[in-house]
Design brief:
Layout (H helix, E strand, L loop, with lengths): L1 E11 L4 E4 L1 H11 L4 E7 L4 E6 L3 H14 L17 H10 L2 E7 L2 E2 L6 E6 L4 E11 L1
Antiparallel strand pairs: 1-8, 2-7, 3-5, 3-8, 4-7, 5-6
């Protein structure tokens, strides 16, 4: 069995952002040479998420609106966590959207259903952020 590990880095310009990272993850898979196995992709920040969904701008807007209703950023004073930092809402949003995805690798490709793409969801950005890709298989 082979193993592959790579960190992907992103300059996140906004506080909240959804980035389609499917092409970068597919490049990792190609570099790994693994044809059959499992690919794990996870956020390396406690205020970020990796998830699978459709790459459709209306849906991304709906996520933003829905998450902001669940855990509004402001007022910052509503959260006990906020003191030195003002990102309690980002921690809560990450809990809802999840930390990682696991994707089957079949014949050297991500074994996706129709429309599935991998996204990095950032909820406390405006700086460099990273994602871990770990692939095991043959």
């Amino acid at each position: 069995m082979k193993s592959y590990r790579k960190e992907l880095w992103f300059d996140v310009r906004n506080r909240r952002e959804f980035i389609n990272i499917t092409p970068e993850v597919e490049q990792c898979l190609a570099e790994s040479g693994i044809k059959e196995g499992l690919l794990l992709c996870n956020a390396m920040h406690i205020t970020a998420s990796v998830f699978i969904n459709d790459d459709e701008s209306g849906l991304h807007h709906d996520f933003e609106v829905w998450l902001e209703k669940l855990a509004p950023e402001k007022p910052h004073s509503q959260y006990r966590h906020n003191g030195y930092e003002d990102n309690a809402d980002a921690h809560l949003k990450r809990s809802v959207m999840g930390r990682e995805v696991l994707v089957a690798v079949t014949e050297g490709k991500l074994d996706f259903g129709p429309w599935e793409q991998i996204f990095y969801g950032e909820f406390d950005g405006k700086r460099k952020k990273r994602v871990l890709v770990k692939i095991i298989g043959e």
